[in-house]
Amino acid sequence: MMMGLEGQFSLFILVRCLSHAHKLLFLSSILFVFSSQIFQLKVTHYRIILFKTKTHPLFKPLSSSSNLSFHSKTHLFSRCPLGKRLDLRSWAVSGFDLSNFESVLEAAGVLTAIIVVHESGHFLAAYLQGIHVSKFAVGFGPILAKFNAKNVEYSIRAFPLGGFVGFPDNDPESDIPVDDKNLLKNRPILDRTIVISAGVIANIIFAYVIIFVQVLSVGLPVQEAFPGVLVPEVRALSAASRDGLLPGDVILAVNGTNLPKTGPIAVSEIVNVIKSSPKKNVLLKVERGKQDFEIGVTPDESFDGTGKIGVQLSPNVNITKVVAKDILEAFNFAGKEFWGLSSNVIDSLKQTFLNFSQSASKVSGPVAIIAVGAEVARSNIDGLYQFAAVLNINLAVINLLPLPALDGGSLALVLIEAARGGRKLPLEIEQRIMSSGIMLVILLGLFLIVRDTLNLDFIKDML
């Protein structure tokens, strides 16, 4: 029996949970595949997709113990002149910037839009086939506003980190006969497959549209790398500020070792030295204007024993924008960019499962996602284009996994039914499978929310 599809909450890349008449979609799964190569994350090397991987450590969670964070004032998503994507694994989020709450709202708005698109896919696929739909909600929890149209309740709810589409199949208050041919559970396998798959398809289309609009409007970023690592920001009262580092400085060498020209590796080297040197002097060769000189910085010790100096770092690159000249070129650019981002997501997911013991701690939750999006918006609003595109792709890929709480799990049950000649699994077995997935996702979601919140810099400063 097909349960009602409902919801998305935010966790690491949007994980869906099927529960009685609801299906919660946790944004959590969005980050699960969303490592950090292109997004500003927290400390070490990353890459642009969800899990930290061996070759492409994407989105690194805010769980990093160091207050050293990376940041690019120019653009978070870049490509090299020949269209070859550079491995920008250096950005880190320093946490919510409470002085610029607008950027937090922008990031939350992006996530909400992505969730609405996903659920709209399910809704339209059902509605256009004449399948009964009872609810369409943006958010979870108490209803703030609602209206009814054509037997569907549309509502806005208190917690805007998700949404859901409700079906009356298992609603005890529904007056629709249980044998009604237009209940989702009573429709042919193909019809149900279309409804289940429509959310993923909607996110894929939305991701491409976002990139296409970016190509025609602000353009795609192209970068040229230079030696060293840029220091865009130095936190007040930090070790870096105390010992003389200034915003705009370029670090050329650490403890006498020159940094490579490849930004992500250079940033990683600095991070590793700083984290491993609490209360120990670290000698930095710095370029300031046209002068080169050395500065000794003594990292403070974090609560977990690692070093921190309180700066943001980014690859030392010069970034320009390339805008499509016409529609045909826009389709070409958008197609290549979409394929590149999709490949990164898939590759990152693959690496995560192959190296799960190392990657498990890099999974991030809704708090981390919004923090990253807020940092992207604060640094350069243009970065929200690819932030949104990557989240859409992540959501689509993760939801295709054949796991109980995901769309892929629901598809797997339908395929099993097809393989059994149209005979469904016993309801009790199906409910046990889905319930186990739901419970796992809920517990994981709560854990990630608490962990990521405690790892925000302004929370750390209060501890």
TrEMBL record:
UniProt keyword terms in alphabetical order: Hydrolase, Membrane, Metalloprotease, Protease, Transmembrane, Transmembrane helix, Zinc
Gene Ontology molecular functions: metalloendopeptidase activity
InterPro entries the record matches: PDZ, PDZ_6, PDZ_sf, Pept_M50_Zn, Peptidase_M50
Main location: membrane
Spans traversing the lipid bilayer: 20-39, 194-216, 433-450
Pfam families found in the cross-reference section: PDZ_6 (PF17820), Peptidase_M50 (PF02163)
Claim: Transmembrane is one of the keywords in the record: yes
GO biological process: proteolysis
Its membrane topology: Multi-pass membrane protein
SMART domains, per database record: PDZ
Domain PDZ: 218-289
GO cellular component: membrane
Location relative to the cell: Membrane
Cofactor: Zn(2+)
Keyword Zinc-finger: no
Family assignment from sequence similarity: Belongs to the peptidase M50A family.
Protein name, entry field: PDZ domain-containing protein
